[in-house]
Structure formats: C-alpha cells, structure tokens
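Problem 12. The chain below contains 163 residues. Write out its predicted structure in token notation.
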Amino acid sequence: MLHPSDTGTFYTPRQVADSLTALARKCGFTQLRVSGGEPTVGKTHLFQLLDLLKDKGFSFILETNGILLGHDEDYAGDLAKYDFVHARVSLKGCDNQEFSMLTGADAKGFDLQLRSLEKLTKAGVRCHPSAMVSFSNRENIGKLKHRLRQIGPDLAEQLEVEE
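Solution.
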C-alpha cells in the first residue's frame, strides 16, 4: 500500500502560505490558488492555510471537485468566514452517468458536486462551476445549465467549459 509520505512531500500550512505569498508578491499576482490533490480532503490543513492568508490582500481560488463540500453539512458555512475565497467547482461531466463514466465512481457523486454549489451559494461563498464536457452532447450541456439556473440564476452563465 502506498503512503503519501512515500510519493511526495508534505508542506505545512505555513510553508504553503509563505511560498504562495512570496511568489505572488514577486510576480505582482493578486490571486492565489492551490490545485491538484483535492484541497478539501485536508480540511484542517486548508483552514489553517486560509487563516494564515487572511488579511494579506489576496484572493484565494479554491479548486475543488465539490464532493466533500456537498457531503459535509458545515463545510460551506465554515468557508464563508473567509471573504477572500472563491470556489471553482469542477464538475466531471454534465450528469450522473457522465460523472460515473469519467471518474469510475458512484454516479451519486455528481449530485454531491451540484449540492456543493447549492451550499456555497446559500452560505454566501463566491463560486462558479466548471464542467468537463468533452464527452457531452449539446442536450446534456443544456440540461446541466438548466440545473445550474435552479441552484443560482448566474451559475449557468458563469459555467466555465473544460474540454
């Protein structure tokens, strides 16, 4: 069995915050982002990082598949405490079947992704969806936009298409 310590390097929230802010200041960036490895899995680590970035003058883009945000009743509300966070929820496909085909996971995971957008919107966390649509037809994309409009009127227009 593989362990994370065997395949990579673990960075403390302080190391991540220092590295991100140093690079951003050097390059004149105003937005910070951590992507890959699903940052919501390490909830404590993520919130410690956000605590360190608070009041630094940056926006933070949280790249997530949204599954844990959709599952955990309190996660979106806890994120709402950080007004500099914007969540980019990367949907895997346009519906449950496409989600399952693309991820190999239970099709119900797609519902959790959409639920994360509901919870984020309700909690007042700025967010937008992106969707991997390479295997989607126009009809399914249209149905996804309809579902997004039901969650929040602007979400369909803010949909970022990934191919």
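Discussion. The longest strand covers residues 85-91. Students who got a different answer should revisit the alignment rule from Section 12.3.
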